[in-house]
Amino acid sequence: MKLGVLCSGGDSPGMNAAIRGAVLRGVDVHGFEMVGFMDGWRGFHEGDTVPLDRPAVRGISPLGGVMLGTSRVPPFPSRAGSREEWEAFAARFAEHGLDGLLLIGGNGTQTVAKMLADRGFPVVGLPKTIDNDLDGTDYTFGFDTAVSIASEAVDRLRTTGESHRRCMVLEVMGRDAGWIALHAGVAGGAQLVLIPEYPESIEQIAAWVAEVRDRGRSSLVVVAEGFRIAGHDSSAEPSEAVTRAGLDGFGRPRLGGIAEVLAPLIEELTGIETRATVLGHVQRGGSPTAFDRVLATRSGIAAADAALAGAWGTMAALQGNRIELIPLGDAVGRLKTVPHERYQEARLNFG
């Protein structure tokens, strides 16, 4: 059996460990031939491949980034794929001599995996995203590392904020789901966490910050990049909070900069000097945590085993402490967002 491994979307700590797990299981145990496509679907379209065997993946688990590269190049020029595009895809699949594909990615990649599975292509998904917003799995690899990096930033900003009696606003990633902000904020003891799922008014935010000041402390606010201020136009993209104009690879407006919007508003309403820090891509870089290395390795092993068993159209999901194969449709039907009770649990301690 010949398997192709392809990474798509944003990079995420742990992707190398997932590749290693799949290769060691697939090649050494099951006797597969495996190839990797460079830079995601670009490599698939252009025939840019590398052989994957034990020497190719030696020592890569602790490394950040991804050895194969990744990109937001789509599998089809049109989003759904025309008849001609599907025919061209099938011809390329046959040209590569593939018996199956292992697709490492987040919601967009697993949605593509389901599209391929629905058309009869043999695919297995491996769930990575620092946002942890993929349904059907308790955690995606990359999330724990991103939270650890953000939590360290909270700790560091707290000391300088307290020294100058400033309010510090830390912006972390999270377009539609606030898992990173919530976990980092709780871990770091932030006085306030703002996430996309639950808008808050600027008056309420300022009141919480003032309450912290009144008891002799300095506020640390953690905000996800997709947070919207209640009362503002929630139907429009927050273009005023975008640090770099334009669209990303999926045609969505680039986010980043809501902290720069919040900071002067908080200062204006409270009189407290307020500074903003945008953590940005620091959250994606560097070595993965031990948790992410183990989770990614187990996911890769499960994907190789799924290929051997012919369990195509599935994704290797963490449920409890077990890796289970779930239908791709269960993973991409909706985003996994922060439940109301989880937010309320934290909100009771704001201020």
UniProtKB/TrEMBL annotation:
NCBIfam families: PRK03202.1 (NF002872). The gene is pfkA. GO terms for cellular component: 6-phosphofructokinase complex. It comes from the Bacteria. Pathway: Carbohydrate degradation; glycolysis; D-glyceraldehyde 3-phosphate and glycerone phosphate from D-glucose: step 3/4. This is ATP-dependent 6-phosphofructokinase. Mg(2+) binds at N107. Residues 2-306 form the Phosphofructokinase domain. It is found in: Cytoplasm. Its cofactor is Mg(2+). Keywords: ATP-binding, Cytoplasm, Glycolysis, Kinase, Magnesium, Metal-binding, Nucleotide-binding, Transferase. InterPro entries: ATP_PFK, ATP_PFK_prok-type, Phosphofructokinase_CS, Phosphofructokinase_dom, Phosphofructokinase_III, PKF_sf. The active site is at D131 (proton acceptor). Catalyzes the phosphorylation of D-fructose 6-phosphate to fructose 1,6-bisphosphate by ATP, the first committing step of glycolysis.
